[in-house]
Specification:
alpha+beta, about 30% strand, 4 helices, 4-stranded antiparallel sheet
Length: about 150
């Protein structure tokens, strides 16, 4: 299962390939990958033609901030991984989602389809991430603050 450090490494790996680039196309090979998208056809409609303005992460959710105040959420699930590829390269088995960006393909390969993708409005994103706690890499208190919090326990 991709854990937080792997998700952060993947986010950093994608920075140069995505930030500032326009999404030229999206292919979804398995409808299950869109199970968190309120209306499945919104995923491509909201994504294609948008520029990726920032790549963030909250917990294990990768957040592709798009112009127009939309956010593509990518979760790798249990077995997912993202591969940057030339469009002429053969696709790996279980390539479930492909974004065409800047002459390259960003391929989500997920054999077990526990991962998902969605493109959310700000309100939908707030609902989707409502239960996600503090981020273990950036949102936890420093040692002195944690000691103070635990002093009376």
């Amino acid at each position: 299962m991709p854990e937080l450090p792997e998700v952060e490494s993947t986010r950093r790996h994608l920075l140069e390939a995505l930030e500032g680039h326009r999404i030229d196309g999206v292919e979804v090979a398995r409808a299950r990958m869109l199970r968190r998208q309120p209306r499945s056809r919104d995923f491509a409609d909201r994504s294609v033609g948008r520029r990726v303005v920032a790549l963030d992460r909250r917990g294990k959710f990768m957040l592709w901030r798009l112009d127009g105040d939309l956010t593509t959420v990518v979760h790798l699930g249990m077995s997912g991984r993202i591969r940057l590829a030339d469009p002429t390269e053969p696709r790996d088995a279980h390539t479930n989602v492909v974004w065409s960006v800047g002459g390259r393909e960003v391929r989500l390969v997920d054999p077990r389809t526990f991962g998902f993708v969605a493109c959310f409005t700000p309100e939908e994103l707030d609902l989707a991430l409502a239960g996600v706690g503090a981020d273990a890499l950036t949102g936890l208190p420093d040692t002195a603050t944690l000691a103070d919090l635990l002093a009376d326990r």
